[in-house]
Amino acid sequence: MIIAVNIDGDVVGGGLGRAQTMAIAEVKDGQIASWQEESVRWDIAHEQVESGAVTGGSHHARIVKFLREHKVEAVIAGHVGPPMMHTLELLGVRVVIATGSARQAVLDAAQP
Question: Domains of the chain (ranges plus CATH)?
Answer without folding.
Answer: 2-109 (3.30.420.130)
